[in-house]
């Protein structure tokens, strides 16, 4: 897999957790379970996790019908979770992030979250390269 070496960030983390609180997720007024956003942010800060596993509180991620959706990005691998109902489910994510911190790298997600995993796309697509190196659409090439 080729890597872009022209763009870099110093804000590298082991992973990123996107917690949805969009038009449906966490909307108790629509009958969905609460997403403990303030508690989760405090917990992330208390455990000094932001520079290890980035927490993003997100608008709608798309699959609203799964309700209370979380996307965990681990390197190039996305893991979609849906149907989280209780604070303990979000606590499991914080525990996992702490475990990554203590291990100095990624560790598997806790088994307690496995039942919430879902497939987000019609079928999994795997490419040898993420970008089509044979395409000729680049404005830079035309300059
Ligand atoms: S509001 Fe969470 S996926 Fe749409």
List keywords for this structure.
Glutaredoxin, 3 helices, 143 residues, single chain
Q: In words, what does this structure look like?
A:
The chain has a single domain (15-121), classed as Glutaredoxin (3-Layer(aba) Sandwich). 22% of the residues lie in helices and 17% in strands. The chain has helices at residues 37-46, 87-103, 139-142, and strands at residues 15-20, 53-58, 70-74, 77-81, 117-118. It has a five-stranded mixed β-sheet with strand order 2-1-3-4-5, covered by helices on one side. The protein starts with 14 loop residues before the first strand and ends with a helix.
What is the number of strand segments?
5
Number of domains: 1
Q: For the largest sheet, list the strands in their spatial order.
A: 2-1-3-4-5
What is the CATH-assigned architecture?
A: 3-Layer(aba) Sandwich
Average pLDDT, rounded to a whole number, is 89
Which geometry do the CA atoms define? Answer: globular
Indicate the radius of gyration in whole angstroms.
17 Å
Number of helices: 3
What's the CATH class, please?
Answer: Alpha Beta
Low-confidence stretches: none
Strand content: 15-25%
The ordered string of helix (H) and strand (E) elements is: EHEEEHEH
Measure the end-to-end span. 27 Å
Oligomer class = single chain
What share of the residues lie within helices? 10-25%
In the CATH hierarchy, the third-tier topology is known as Glutaredoxin
Structural class: alpha+beta
Question: How would a crystallographer describe the biggest sheet?
Answer: 5 strands, mixed
Ligands: FE2/S2 (inorganic) cluster
